[in-house]
Design brief:
The chain is of the alpha+beta class. The protein is built from 19 helices and five strands. The chain has helices at about 1-30, 50-70, 80-105, 110-125, 135, 145-165, 170-190, 195-215, 220-240, 245-255, 260-275, 285-290, 295-315, 325-345, 345-360, 360-380, 385-395, 485, 490-520, and strands at about 405-410, 420-425, 430-435, 450-455, 465-470. Helix 1 (about 1-30) runs antiparallel to helix 2. The longest helix is centred in the C-terminal third of the chain and has 34 residues, at about 490-520. The protein starts with a helix and ends with a helix. About 35% of the residues are buried.
Length: about 525
């Protein structure tokens, strides 16, 4: 049996090698090439993108040879059954033809999903289906109306996941090679000879093609290849799940397909966060981010091969799904994904992290906002200059600002006795109040901070000066709704200044008028 498997593998590799070279030359001769027409394309010369034709043809021929040998020599039976082969190859052919048409003419996302859903429905009709999810729902089997959409969702997700990472020479094919080897090993250990043979034939077809697709590529995989490979892996995972424990059947494919699943998840989440359509193409994929970090094309592919290899190796640990093994795999995966995403520097996830931190710090934001609201309410009833200044110090002394300058149209004769509060006498008569938070590292010349200036205008449009608040440049977030300082607060402060100046004028002018009246009477 080992010699039989090796022979089918060798036949698949050779068929793929010669078919790929023939199709490449044929496509170049007839002008069936794709020019770098959009920004996300990384190739600089026109190249054929129907490499999937070679992979599909080599795979079908290798499986056909194996079937003939198995029929002629029953002792080499590998579970051959026309019904089982049809259950996989029929929908796979539909997916392949969809990819060929897309490579030549282009197809929108919704027709693609429709054909993929049809293919998933065919798998379901032949008994290849998602029966349960033990991690979430225990060992209870789903009814058909739950199992059918889950099966279709699985097929669509995995099929498009491998299509999504097909952005660099050899990346999708190489990643699929690791995933298919895992399917082969699991099927071999579980005694599923048919899945073993199909996965081995697929490995050979991909390996023979990869010789011409690795950087610098002379032919692309195309949707005909990436969609076909993705669908075959989703179908083989469903077929292999029927002969292994349920936890293994679910966990191993998910982990072994880790790179394309991770890429798909990141793409959907970041596009949703940024408000862009989910199905639009961009240059924010993992391989694009690695290129932006200064890696070469080939270095990026090798790094992602390593990532795919790690995912494949970790998935094989789940063949012995003890609690400690599962915990170790999840810990390694979670840590690796977290560190990797951080290193890639996605702006969307940085913003999501900022929002999460702001949510956790919401209590502090409430406290600071209430301080400004309380100051606004107190300013509306005060007419005393000292009290006005104390209100400002209390409001800004407890939040994230480091200093403020109050420049009223007229200052009192002396500053209130408040810590950190003083009058600054400008060289041209531009005098103003200055307050700095005790312990703040803000320099007196205020060159190491950003500022917010608001004009103080009363409700009847009378200008009473301005208020400028300062804050040191720091990565520490500002725990305050700035709108509170620019909306009702400046009006309340302006009217409080107006009342305070009027009262101050009465205190100064009042005694002088009384002395003048006494002199006139005398």
């Amino acid at each position: 049996m080992t010699a039989f498997y090796l022979g089918i593998f060798a036949a698949s590799v050779l068929l793929s090698f010669f078919l790929t070279r023939y199709i490449r030359n044929l496509a170049n001769a007839h002008g069936w090439v794709t020019a770098p027409g959009v920004e996300r394309h990384l190739h600089s010369v026109p190249l054929p993108r129907i490499g999937g034709v070679a992979i599909f043809s080599a795979f079908v021929l290798a499986v056909g040879i194996a079937s003939l040998i198995g029929w002629r020599y029953p002792s080499l039976s590998f579970g051959f059954s026309p019904q089982i082969l049809v259950s996989i190859l029929l929908p796979a052919t539909f997916i392949f033809l969809l990819g060929v048409y897309d490579d030549l003419h282009g197809v929108g996302p919704y027709p693609k999903f429709a054909v993929q859903a049809l293919a998933g429905g065919i798998l379901f009709a032949f008994g290849l289906r998602v029966l349960d999810l033990p991690v979430l729902f225990g060992g209870r089997h789903f009814p058909w109306f739950v199992s059918l959409p889950l099966t279709i969702l699985w097929v669509i997700a995995i099929t498009n996941a491998f299509n999504l990472i097909d952005g660099l020479d050899g990346l999708a094919a190489g990643s699929a090679l690791f995933s298919t080897l895992v399917v082969f090993v699991v099927a071999l250990l579980s005694g599923s000879s048919l899945v073993s043979l199909l996965s081995l034939a697929l490995v050979g077809a991909v390996l023979g093609f990869l010789r011409f697709n690795f950087n610098p590529a002379t032919i692309f995989l195309g949707d005909s290849g990436s969609l076909f490979i993705g669908f075959m892996l989703s179908a083989l995972a469903l077929r292999g799940a029927q002969k292994v424990p349920t936890v293994v059947a679910i966990a191993i494919p998910v982990v072994s397909f880790g790179l394309p699943i991770l890429e798909t998840t990141l793409s959907v989440v970041r596009r949703f966060i940024s408000g862009r359509p989910v199905f639009t193409a961009d240059r924010e994929h993992i391989h694009h981010k690695l290129l932006q970090l200064g890696m070469s094309h080939r270095q990026v592919v090798v790094v992602l091969y390593g990532v795919s290899g790690v995912f494949a190796l970790l998935s094989l640990f789940l063949l012995w799904p003890t609690g400690s093994t599962l915990g170790l795999v999840l810990a390694v995966l979670g840590t690796g994904i977290w560190v990797g995403v951080q290193r890639l520097g996605y702006l969307e996830f940085g913003e999501l992290r900022r929002v999460a931190l702001r949510t956790m710090e919401q209590r502090l934001i409430f406290v600071n906002n209430l301080a400004i609201r309380r100051a606004t309410a107190e300013l509306k009833v005060t007419s005393d200059y000292d009290q006005l200044c104390r209100i400002l110090v209390a409001a800004f002394g407890s939040n994230d600002f480091d200093a403020f300058e109050l420049r009223p149209t007229q200052l009192p004769l002396q500053a209130p006795e408040i810590r950190g509060f003083r009058i600054i006498h400008g060289g041209t008569g531009d005098d103003y109040f200055h307050w700095k938070k005790p312990g703040s590292q803000l320099k007196d010349e205020i060159r190491n901070a950003w500022s917010l200036n608001v004009n103080l205008v009363t409700g009847n449009s009378r200008s009473m000066g301005s208020l400028t608040v300062y804050r040191l440049y720091t990565p520490r977030p500002l725990h305050l709704d700035v709108n509170l300082i620019t909306a009702e607060f400046p009006v309340a402060l302006a009217e409080a200044l107006d009342r305070s100046l009027a009262q101050n004028l009465e205190l100064v002018v009042g005694p002088a008028q009384n002395e003048l009246r006494a002199a006139q009477v005398g």
